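Look over both lines:
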Amino acid sequence: MMIKYERPTSLAARWARRIARFAFGLFVAAVLAHRFGPLVTPNFVALAALSTGLAVLAVVLAIVGFVRLWQVAAVGGIASFVALLYAVLPIGVAGFTLGEYFSKPAIYDVSTDTVTPPPWIKPPDVPQGWLKRPREVTPEDREAQIAAYPGLTGRRYDGALDRVFQGVKVVAEQTGIRIVAQEGAENAEADLEDMAVKPSDAAPADTDPDDVPIPLSRPQMVPGDMRPGRRSTDILVQGEWRTPIVGFRLDVLIRLREEAETTFVDMRVASRYGAHDLGLGAAFADQFLHALDAELLGIAGD
């Protein structure tokens, strides 16, 4: 008489595949809704954490499925393997995020000028939800930034303010910064004595001069009216930048200051949500300043 062996089926492996597939779909949907849709960062972080938790549960069940396959040859090896594949994405992203969280300082605002940072034109103020953070940046935060990012410094260019301002606008467009406010842009207007006049456009010497407006002196603002980190001759450019894949929002401020025959550029970057920017602010500031160096190649100073 022939005996037919019936292999048991691993329910753990089947549930592992179902849960991992759901976790993968939830994570992808959250990323797309956050990057291109209305999902705000606090809700995205909550959904990503839920997806990671489900993926971890699926991995545990998949391991149980492999153990059952080894011990009693239970059906479910393929289901367990598929579950691990689905779980790689949310768990991998969560692992990378935790690595950045613990290896970078817990700050959300970085500046190339840690003594007198450029002031916001429109201070970012959005509901933080459950991602609470301090409202003010403390001196301890600036010290933590200096220790973690000692190379994050401003740039000095041996060029006029208007030339550097044009370069900043070009690089801002190339890097995807959306400009939301400007102050002091009139300081970059060319002086009358710097404007070139074509000989063909000049009037004959024997003609009477036309009536021309008398240039007025640039209005000087009272120093007491200036915010800390702001001078009347400065140019401030504020914008918003988003990370390419996930779409985290960062507020960006660029300050241009004319000093003698040079122009100094400082930058400030702050994450829109949360008390930790995972190093994104310093990385973007460094990327922008290097791109500005390339744009203004030949006039970069110290």
Remarks:
- The longest helix spans residues 41-72.
- DSSP finds six helices and six strands in the chain.
- Strands lie at 109-111, 155-157, 178-183, 235-242, 249-259, 262-271.
- The radius of gyration is 29 Å.
